[in-house]
Amino acid sequence: MSLVARPSDARRAALSEATKGMGEKGVPLVSNFFPLDRYFDAANRVLEAFNTAFDARRLDDAYVYGKRFAIFSLEALPKHNYYESPRYVSIRRKNKQDMTEVILKLEKVAEWMDDEEKEKERQRKKREAEERKREEERMKREAEAARVRLMQFQMDVDKKNRDMKGAGANVQKSALDKLKRMNGSEDGNVTDAFMNDLKRSFRTSGRRESETTDDNLAGEQRPSRNINDQPLPPPLPVPLPPPQHPANTSGHSKELPPPSYNAIMDSSKRDGDSQTSKKIPQSALEQAAAISAAAAGGATRREHQSLRVSGSVYANRELERHRRMAQRKEKVLIQAIKSQIHNEYQQLRSSKRIEVISLSTHQGRFPDSTNGCAVISPLVVSHHLRSRSSVSNDEISNVIDKECGPLLREIRGKLKLNGAALIIPSDVHDHLVDKKILKQDAFIGATGGNIMDRKHLAEFLRLLDSGEKNSHARCRTGAALFFREHVVSLVKVPAADGKWLFDLIDSLPGGNGMATRTRCHDLVALETMLRHYASSRFSESNCDYIDKNDWDDCMADFDPRVFQCFVWGDILKKK
To answer: What is the per-residue pLDDT for 226?
Structure first.
């Protein structure tokens, strides 16, 4: 049975996109290595924002906040291994009550959205009807105007045709009347004086043509000719009517003929300087300076050009250009960074600055060690600091297979966690200190942040390499590093000639199915190893989150790049 579509379906679907990019399928990440209290606090802040938006009827905000709270409470919080712990009974009960109220309010928000969308649709149809009516009226006005123009044009054509016809019929009479007026006679006969003058002009022109002929004929008697037999000058041509053009109803002047090519080229030469000056648009600083100067007293263009902000370039244009170029730079995607780190890691392995050693066992090989990395890693550090030089491979294998099991059961029982629950590292450390397995005097410090940020990672490497204020530069150290629901150990190992090596011990199965001990021969190799280890653990959704979100300390608990480490070292002798 298909669901009935609601008016606000599309709107709510678009708002649901706001929850994407927050973690797996839009659900924020919850790490078992952070206290559950912090996640309940985060949920309560979202709940407060939802209630504020709901009361103000800011429907879009209310829908987004409400849905985020519901998804987080329903799908994310229960995944934390401490969710069923007795210490969280009251806060868990309140969260479920809040979740029920939010779901009911979300349905009310959806009803309000339906009402809004119906009103929007009614207004849209009203606007469309008004627009259609305006369009029809406009078309009617244009059609009437066109009809009037056509009638006027036809009347003009008919009038000019009549004028042309009358002018053609009277043209010959007009020419003869002109000749009569020139001779001063109006009786219709050409005077003898005029004809004699015309005869003499013909004789004169004849003598110019051939003097020899005139001399031969001088003594001869010329036959008389009647002047009326001479042809008159041809009639004047009928004047052509001026070219007809449709009436110009646009209100603009008549179109001029297109300019010649030379005229265009001359114009471009004259305007060359002004065109060149427009190639670089004014910067924001230039525009602000020009506006301020103009507002102060109508400064001229020459006065604007004399302004300086800093440096010799007007309005610091060079810095403005670099700023704009920097803004256009595309953000480097995490996949490209991962590829670069992998290449660096392979080069260091080829040069033997990084060596991977397989151990004889791994976490989970026996059931008691499953999800035991939070205990295994500090135990390895404890053995390293108690040894003469460095923790051995056999000691690491013994920690994984034998020592961690009883401690895991003891800590889980104390916290009332289920048999395979991950344990928050701080709870493990507190228990190991209580059991005297780790000594509080050996603790150097804790740090963390964005593992892909070299500055954050450098702080951890500094503690591991030399301790606080260079206190352990010549002493051994060890650390438990928590990242992406897993804990690994790092130990500083003495070598010949006063040098130090750095080993990363991972209890999970490696390439050959066993735990690994990766040896780095210097700090540069260790940094590359840690960046490679971290980037290789990012899932596709983690990469998508990283590409869309810059690091924010306030969102660290939900960020896949977050890491945390506890550093321990040899106990220093008191002076």
So the answer is: 47
